[in-house]
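Is this the right way to post structure tokens for a design question? Let me know if I should format differently. Anyway, here goes:
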């Protein structure tokens, strides 16, 4: 059974930084595609970053240059978020695909964590 568990969310002022982590069990992130998605208040869920098995990355335009997705050999996925804006406020989800590959569409992902809240306000 694939389980994904996020951590690292919290409240931060505009311009601040946070790092989200995702621990994966029952999933080989070395061969799969993983990503971070978010859903803000009253908004649809959107993918903000993804990383494939070769380490290739893709970012949504809204976060490009501010967010960095990465993974390590300990089956953890990270999202470094810098220069945070109030519009980045959302529940952030770690997600993984079942082996078909993923782009930046929520429907590309088959497994989801429970989410971690990020709030950016002064």
């Amino acid at each position: 059974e694939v389980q994904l568990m996020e951590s690292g969310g919290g409240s931060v002022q505009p311009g601040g930084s946070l790092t989200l982590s995702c621990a994966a069990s029952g999933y080989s992130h070395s061969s799969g595609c993983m990503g971070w998605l978010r859903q803000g208040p009253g908004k649809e869920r959107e993918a903000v970053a993804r990383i494939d098995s070769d380490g290739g990355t893709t970012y949504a335009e809204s976060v490009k240059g501010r967010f960095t997705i990465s993974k390590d050999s300990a089956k953890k996925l990270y999202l470094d978020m810098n220069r945070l804006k109030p519009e980045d406020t959302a529940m952030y989800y770690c997600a993984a695909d079942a082996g078909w590959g993923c782009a930046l569409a929520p429907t590309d992902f088959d497994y989801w964590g429970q989410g971690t809240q990020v709030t950016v306000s002064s």
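Format looks fine. Someone answered above. Worth noting: The CA atoms of residues 42 and 107 lie 19 Å apart. The longest strand covers residues 18-25.
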